[in-house]
Structures are given as structure tokens and as C-alpha cells.
Sequence to fold (440 residues):
Amino acid sequence: MTTKQTQRLGLTARSYSTKVPQQLDRRAFLKGGAMLGGLAAAGAGGIGTAVAANPENLPPNVPDWSRYLGAGVDAMPYGVPSEHEAHVVRRNVEWLTATSESSVNFTPLHELDGIITPNGLCFERHHGGIAEVEPEDHRLMIHGLVDRPLMFSMADLKRFPPISKIYFLECAANSGMEWRGAQLNGVQYTHGMVHCVQYTGVTLRTVLEACGLKPKAKWLHAEGADSAGMNRSVPLDKALDDCLLAYSQNGERLRPEQGYPLRLVVPGWEGNMWVKWIRRIEVGDMPWHTREETSKYTDLLEDGHARRFTWEMDVKSVITSPAPEKLVAGKGFQIVKGLAWSGRGAIKRVDVSVDGGRNWQTARLDEPVLSKSLTRFYYEWDWDGSPTLLQSRAIDDSGQVQPTMKALQEARGTNSIYHNNSIQTWLVNPTGEVENVRLA
Ligand code: MTE
Ligand code: CO
Fold:
């Protein structure tokens, strides 16, 4: 990427002020802030009024929506968010990839609450576009080192005992642009290649056992039905431990972009292994060393060697508000909000620093705190209006602590793209604007 390109998109960490991705109107924001202060001074509570309001709708007037009948129950057979939330969408960075079919878009983390990502906002990563699979014609074939090679229709798979589990999925390339310095000025872009939904499906163990595993079976080769035929090797131990063949997300069938009608769920491991539109599993005794685990999704170290099979997503966290898209609404009491996750287990603690990592305070973890799932944290902060370096640092129940970028680079160098789980720094300026910065 060139400096010109990043500036044009308003994505360079230092070129924030006017060209923010969200097109925030700073004057409207400041006006709203002033109103908030005024209401508070008048003793009216003053919470939730930080946008320019139409006085005709405010008490003691009766707003339009209270005067007339609303739309009936037939208006929207499948509901969508309010038109006032139309800015809450997945976004891509056009210059990042040559085509939109082999590309990625990002989850708007700064706009979400709790830990569940709404289906329509789950980031997408495709190598050959979204396959349009006819569910009736889709088959999952299992062969290789099994007693009975079998082919399953979707109806067959739904006859197995279902199980539902909440897991995060993070692309190994999440935060990959940030290895050498602060690049993208928005949490949607620096950390938005993660989503967390409740999957329903059948355990991979159940289906493999139906085929009967031969004693020599040690590895699987999972392959998708998209035009990329994306494929990965998965060790059998993991497959038998907690992998799922999922047909639903958040209570409804998978979305086409998430692998409809069937995807592999590989909890805690890099998103690339979660083969979408899965059509074939071959059981073998060795890994296949496919493209996606050799030339891609390996980390080039300083000495020229590459790390092999970097499956687990290490402990990580990020503050989602304030963030470059979420300005600080004036001095005083703030709730800092964020997300933490670990592919090795559950989040044990999240610390927040307001001085660039010199001192740390413990954040409050919101329930539920689930293994290999996003965890929501909150921290109460009284901002004095001076420039502030905000950071969060997660610790998981395996004892792993989220590293600084300095520590990560000492271990892995600067050639990496994948597996950047380092601590993110947001600089809060006295104006309330927030920038992505890198501490030396
Ligand atoms: N499976 C197939 N068949 N084709 C793909 O392009 N992309 C992989 C993985 N599974 C991919 C795939 C990558 S790199 C990631 S990060 C996740 O799917 C993304 O899942 P999502 O689109 O649900 O976010
Ligand atoms: Co990926």
C-alpha cells in the first residue's frame, strides 16, 4: 500500500482528523456534547442526548410516532435493523486485495454490544467468492483410512444428535497490517476479522465414528465446495476433541457467506481451518501440506525459517470504545468497552491502562465468560481531558499474557503477517478524537 492510497481512504494512523471511515460529523458531535453538559447542569440527567435532536419530538411535545398507527405485522417477514442503524455494516478496504472475490471485509466491532456477532455483520473471508450451494444437492464425503467410506446429505447430518456451542472465529491475518507500525485508523480494520456466534451442528467425532476410524488414522484433509476448493489438514486429535460440522449460526441456518449449508468449526484455531461449504474429508496418516499451510498461513521468522502449523489463536484483546470511530464524548466519567478472547481457553482477566502500559487496573468481565469465545469487558474511567494512551491486556486461563508489539517482534521479527495478538494502543487527543498509534 502506498501512503497516497492510505491517505485517500483516511486510514493512515496520522491522517485521521477529517477523513474518518465513518464520516463522523465533528461539529454535530461537539454540539451534542455541549447539550449533554447543559442538561446535566440543569439536573435533567442528560444521558443519551449527545446527538442533535429535533425539539418538536422532545417532551412536552408528542412526537409523530406516538400519534399514528405503526406498520402491521406483515410489513417485514424477515426483520432488519432500524434505518437509523444503516451505518452499522461490514466494510472492506478496497486497495487491500485485487478482487472482491478473493478478499475480506470487517466486522464493525465498535458498534456491537455483548459477545454475539449478528449474522449479517460477521466478517467474510473468501478465496473464490461465495459458493451458491443447493442444499439438496450438497454432499459430505468421508473416505481414506475409515472402515466405511460414507456420503452424507444435509438431511442425514441433521439426524445426528445436535449440539450448540458459542465460539469466536479469528482470521490468522487479523491485525496483520499492523506488524510494522500503526496503519489502519479504525478498530473495524485493525481487529474486525473476528466474529463470535452460536453454532449448531453435529460433532465431527460422531460423524467420523459412524465411518469407523482405522488404527493408522492421524490426520484429516478437509475441503470446501467453493471455486477455490479451499483445503486444510487437521490433526485427528483436534477433530475428535471439539470440532463441529455446523449447519446453523445464531439459531438460523448458516448464511451463504459463512459456508451454507455446512462448515467446519475448529474452536480456538485460525479461521482458515474452518472450511466453509465443506464437501470432503479424507482421513490419512500424515498432513497434506496444502498451499494454505505452507506458502500461506505460516510465519516467516528473521532467520528465514517459517513457523509450521500455527493453529492456535493466542490471547488477545482490544478496546472497541473509545476507538478511532468512537470519539470520547467530553471530559469526565466514561465506560471503556472492549473484547478479549483466547484460542487456548477462557479469559481470566483483562487489564486496562490509561498511561500507555505503565500502570494497569483490572477491568470488569461481563457474563458469560466462555472458553474460546469472545468475552466482553468494561472499565470505568474518569478522563481529565489530557492526551491519553489507552490499552487493554488480556490474560487467559492457560496463563498466557497478551504481549506488547515489542515483545512479539523480539520473538518473531517483522516479516510476519499472521498471528499478531499484541496490545493495541489508542491515543485519545484533548479534542476527544482517537488515533491508532504505535509506542516505541
Ligand atoms: N473455506 C472455504 N471453502 N473457502 C474460503 O475461502 N476462507 C477461510 C475460512 N474457510 C475460506 C474457508 C478463511 S481464511 C477464514 S478467516 C474463514 O473461513 C472466514 O470465515 P467467515 O467468512 O465466516 O468469516
Ligand atoms: Co482467514
